[in-house]
Design goal:
The structure holds 2 protein chains of 2 kinds. By secondary structure, chain A is of the alpha/beta class. Chain A contains 7 helices and 10 strands. In chain A, helix 3 (104-118) runs antiparallel to helix 4 (133-146). By secondary structure, chain B is mainly α. The longest helix of chain B has 34 residues, at 192-225. The chains are: A alpha/beta, B mainly alpha. At the A-B interface, strand 6 of A face helix 6, helix 7 and helix 10 of B.
Chain lengths: 222, 227
């Protein structure tokens, strides 16, 4: 369960967002500058709201009157827009970066499985600049999930990919969500993609929620 | 054949190496701290760090004498409590080198840190990395080409330091005669052959250093800049 309530003064408007979610896929849609990435960054702890409350299960990430929980203690998986892979490390090192020493043994099996699902076992010894865009996206996903997050944030995860790869990756995301069963929050400005991936879609404009749809309603309107 | 005393070479290398070590550690720490933050007076502080770069070495030397001289603020204190004097010792040469080469290290390091993509550090943080781990696994290796450039520049600057060293450490053969010092006093006493020898040494050394750095960065820069 993830509870998000964010108030934050941004350059051109004041953001006021509130939503609750379970282990579903929530898609945030909106024009650029509508505050989508700020929401992800607030959940991850890279920026902090002016006031509000962010709670994941029993962990309070942010509460107006308390010191915010540092990003490193939040157990968040974050796939950045252009993946932010570490250019000086191999794919393997990238993926293992977030795995704690004491969890190394337990994680071995899970990561091997993850690599198989994503089809990137053959890339382990390559550097990020030696793999394609779609492969980078998969490596980024594997890296985010290898650290066993309790929430996965994805910022425009598919925007840099061509149409064919994009479709494949959408299917993979759905499959991974089924395996992982944790809240996924996906940011996109592509409506088709939002409808394909989301159990729930939240429309944003100028830091406010303008509309919200659930999959059932979506289907029933067809 | 000329009878050569090689002590200036040894002393110069010793002074430059020790000063570069301090300048590197302190310069990297300060640059990392300052580059990441915006605070009141930041530009004034940065101007202060870079000041020795534009001041005449004699002014730097004068300032150091005021601080470390027998009657200087720090100098008198050291003398009183530790019976220790910096003026006219090789340690004075080290301090002069530190002050004049610090701006070069600081500038290179600050530029290297500022050009790093903050998202890489943030990605590491979301994966549970402490600030220290972010620094030594992400920031330091990615900034290394810039840091190395600063390191080499500082070393070369320390090796060539003359003005401030002369004012603080003076010229005492066998004690504070670094290569630049040896050249100056060789010329002054008409020993042109000796001066030429040291000039050739220092030119060869500087030239090889620049060649090596350029070769190294051409070879390695791709690894660090491509993503």
């Amino acid at each position: 369960m993830l509870h998000v309530n964010i108030h934050k003064q941004l350059a051109h408007y004041e953001m006021a967002i509130q939503f609750k979610m379970g282990a579903e896929i929530l898609v945030l849609v909106g024009p650029s500058g509508s505050g989508k990435t700020t929401i992800l960054n607030s959940i991850a702890g890279l920026v902090h709201p002016d006031s509000g409350l962010i709670v994941s299960n029993t962990h309070t990430f942010f509460d107006t009157d308390q010191k915010p929980l540092p990003a490193r203690e939040r157990q968040i998986g974050y796939l950045f827009q252009d993946y932010a892979l570490f250019p000086h490390m191999t794919v393997e090192k990238n993926i293992w970066y977030g795995v704690k020493k004491k969890n190394r043994k337990d994680s071995q099996k899970m990561i091997v499985e993850l690599l198989q699902v994503l089809g990137i076992e053959h890339l382990l010894h390559k550097y990020p600049h030696q793999v394609s865009g779609g492969e980078k996206q998969r490596v980024g996903l594997a890296r985010a999930l290898a650290a066993r997050p309790s929430v996965l944030l994805l910022d425009e995860p598919l925007s840099a990919l061509d149409r064919e790869t994009r479709k494949q990756c959408q299917d993979e995301l759905l499959r991974l969500h089924e395996m992982w069963k944790i809240p996924f929050i996906i940011v996109t400005h592509d409506l088709d993609e939002a409808e394909r991936l989301g159990d729930r879609i939240i429309y944003l404009e100028q830091g406010q929620i303008t509309d919200e749809q659930r999959k059932r309603q979506l289907i029933s309107t067809y | 054949m000329l009878e050569m005393d090689y002590s200036p070479l040894i002393l110069s290398l010793k002074v430059a190496a020790i000063s570069t070590f301090f300048v590197f550690v302190v310069g990297v720490m300060i640059a990392y701290y300052v580059a990441k933050r915006d605070f009141f007076g930041k530009s004034i502080l940065e101007a202060l760090f870079l000041l020795p770069l534009v001041l005449p070495p004699t002014v730097v030397g004068f300032g150091l004498l005021v601080l470390f001289g027998k009657n200087g603020w720090i100098g008198s204190w050291l003398l009183e409590w530790f019976d220790f004097q910096i003026v006219f010792t090789w340690i004075g040469a080290v301090i002069a080198s530190i002050v004049v080469s610090f701006p070069l290290m600081y500038q290179s390091a600050a530029a290297a840190f500022e050009s790093l993509d903050e998202r890489l550090s943030n990605a590491a943080r979301t994966m549970g990395a402490s600030e220290w781990r972010v620094f030594y696994t992400i920031v330091f290796p990615l900034a290394w080409p810039g840091l190395l450039a600063g390191l080499v520049l500082s070393f070369a600057r320390g090796l060539g330091e003359f003005g401030a060293t002369l004012m603080l450490a003076g010229y005492i053969p066998g004690k504070t005669d670094t290569i630049p010092m040896a050249i100056y006093f060789a010329v002054e006493s008409g020993q042109m052959e000796k001066a030429t020898f040291w000039v050739m040494i220092i030119i060869t050394f500087g030239f090889s250093l620049i060649l090596w750095v350029n070769w190294w960065s051409k070879r390695n820069i791709r690894r660090f800049t491509r993503t």
